[in-house]
Write a structure and sequence with these properties.
Shape: elongated
Radius of gyration: 33 Å
Mean pLDDT: 88
Distance between the termini: 76 Å
Oligomer: single chain
Strand content: under 5%
Largest sheet: none
């Protein structure tokens, strides 16, 4: 053991000289000259931020289009299944039939969720995800409630639910048509 300590001491390993450590200490901030900060131009800053936002929106569009285009057939199949679920709810003639339709719709929506997960496993790439979420929510809760209200004579909630459903499907179809052209 003493031989090893002698060897380490000879090599300078583990030894620290005070003079070396003092050489690397800085005595304060290095000042070469007093310089004023660069002037800022708020208009140029706003224009730069707008350019950056536009660029990022274009990048996002390209990313989502590249993701959704090869999956268009899968998207269209999921959309058809959502439309089929709506048809089941619309064809119910009374509260009893509506309850049966809701059970069938729940099973269909489970399948649609599985398809959506298959299309976009990480739930962050497809532009259609917010529309899918809205349609699933609509078919699970608001649409059946609106059908019950329509049975009672209040057709306004059903009309609003149908309008929302159609708007989401239209947006989805527009997106798929747009990326098919590009």
């Amino acid at each position: 053991m003493p031989a090893m300590l002698a060897l380490l001491a000879a090599l300078g390993v583990g030894a620290c000289r005070k003079a070396d450590s003092q050489q690397h200490e800085q005595k304060g901030p290095l000042v070469t000259a007093v310089q004023p900060p660069l002037p800022e131009n708020p208009e140029l800053g706003k224009r730069s931020e707008a350019q950056s936002r536009t660029h990022l929106q274009h990048e996002d569009f390209e990313r989502q289009a590249a993701f959704d285009k090869p999956r268009s057939a899968q998207h269209r199949a999921a959309m058809r299944q959502l439309s089929s679920a709506r048809t089941l709810l619309d064809e119910a003639k009374g509260a009893q039939e509506l309850a049966e339709a809701q059970r069938a719709v729940r099973a269909q929506l489970t399948e649609v969720r599985a398809k959506i997960k298959e299309i976009d496993p990480w739930s962050n790439s497809s532009r259609l995800l917010p529309d899918y979420d809205a349609l699933l929510q609509l078919l699970e809760t608001r649409y059946p409630s609106a059908r019950i209200a329509a049975y009672g004579g209040n057709g306004e909630p059903l009309s609003a639910a149908r309008t929302q459903f159609d708007a989401h499907l239209r947006e989805m179809n527009n997106w798929l048509a747009r990326i098919a052209r590009e």
